[in-house]
Amino acid sequence: MLNDIQETLYDAEQIQQKVRELAENISRDFEGRNPLVICVLKGAFIFMADLVKNVSIPLEIDFMAVSSYGQSTKSSGVVKIIKDLDVSVEGRDVLIVEDIIDSGLTLSYLIDVLERRNAKSVTVVTLFDKPARRTVELDADYTGFTLPDEFVVGYGLDYAEKYRNLPYIGILKPEVYTKS
Ligand SMILES: O=P(O)(O)OC[C@H]1O[C@H](OP(=O)(O)OP(=O)(O)O)[C@H](O)[C@@H]1O
Ligand code: HPA
Ligand SMILES: [Mg+2]
Which structural domain range is residue 8 located in? Predict the structure, then answer.
């Protein structure tokens, strides 16, 4: 598996340091608001767990599973809800936790869904951002790292469901996804 990685971009320690910083900012900004923190599965599962452990204010969590990449390194353009939230977002301060914003399609779809369900506010934290690939104009409120225009894996992010368990984020060798 390690042989499939061309280059490590951020190691486990650098990621943990950044997650702590993001959690401190969120704790300060959401003081007294009891946010509903939504993990966008599957990619955000590791970031979500590490993040909330470092947030010091009361919060609630829920999960939503969406998918548009499947077995590809390019978005299909169609965002599918695979699992919806268990609770209502009406009147809630919602914090969406994403692993990566790439084309922006997943997030714009989710923000739209949550606003139509009358969330009081919708805020976004993403660990990784790939601004070069945007097809929809949008930015997160909190961003960990800005990445180059390469397909990356690890720390929750997959290619065809693999590599999510790597504790670091790295560029996947193109030959892994170009070979048939
Ligand atoms: O900005 P975008 O181009 O929409 O890409 C970002 C989204 O794509 C990935 O999810 P994916 O559809 O691969 O599902 P997964 O999290 O289950 O891997 C990733 O985890 C983000 O949710
Ligand atoms: O670079 C990426 N890697 C894994 N999943 C993704 N989903 C959008 N961009 C990426
Ligand atoms: Mg994926």
Answer: 2-178
Tell me the CA–centroid distance for residue 163 and ligand 3, in Å.
10
Structure ipTM: 0.98
Name the nearest CA neighbour of 150 among 176, 112, 123: 176
Looking at this protein, which amino acid is placed at residue 14? Q
pTM: 0.97
Question: Residue 68 sits in a domain of what CATH number?
Answer: 3.40.50.2020
**29 among known catalytic residues:** no
Instruction: Looking at the CA of residue 43, tell me the nearest atom of ligand 1.
Output: 16
Instruction: Assess whether the previous peptide bond of 42 is cis (omega < 30° from 0).
Output: yes
Does ligand 2 come within 6 angstroms of the Cβ of 140? no
